[in-house]
Amino acid sequence: MSKSSPVEDGSQWEAIATCDQPSSRKSVGHAFMPGAGGMNRSRSPAARPRWLRPRTSGHLDGPIQLRVNEIGQIFHTLDPLPFRERDLDAGVEEYIVGWAGEIAEKRAITIIVYLPPAEAGRDEARHIGEAMRNYFAYRSKVLGWDLRDMFRTGRASLAIGLTVLAACIVLGKVASGLLGAGYFGRFFDEGLIILGWVANWRPVEIFLYAWWPIERRRRLYRRLSLAQVKIEAGDPQGAASGATLDQG
């Protein structure tokens, strides 16, 4: 999708707001994200974003497309690591991950990077796909480490919580026996039991709810680490079947 096509092709994209200033070479570009609207992460604080959104909802059927003027716009400019091990630019990563989540899990992910002919002919262009896959594979490993740390914390919290619960039950029975079956006996007995269950709130949260979002994200990064990345010289022709990020 070229710069001039999104608003003119009203059948595919709906403009939510327009940009006060023309985008500069330093801007991150127009990221057409799924959901209520897209976002433009401009590095210039004076420019307001242009938000676009698809008129129709559902899964993305086409490839994820990136249009950049320079290869360096794809990666973090301050990363000192070799080219194949660099981190992706934060805006590019957010855009790719956001749209990848809209692709059905059984479908392979394809990323097309459009470069000017001079940039597409550089030796670094041949390694863009490998660098992207390496980055997403690393992110998947990091989330795997986070999951292991979370479960380790959950097991320790569960051991502490069950110990506190057992102690509260015993103390509640002792207090009930000393104070009798009246109001004060019931107060200490039931209060200590409630305290014991509250001590197990954290492990219950971890094992029932907290790990699912991290696992979904990890699976998505793993899918992206297997994505097919194509390098094309020139501009994308149309945006009817895919999502395009303009980094110009």
Automatic annotation (TrEMBL):
Sequence segments annotated as region (Disordered): 1-28
Domain of life from the UniProt record: Bacteria
Keywords, comma-separated and alphabetical: Membrane, Transmembrane, Transmembrane helix
Keyword field contains Membrane: yes
Transmembrane stretches, start-end: 158-185, 191-212
Protein name (database record): Uncharacterized protein
Native source organism of the sequence: Phenylobacterium ferrooxidans
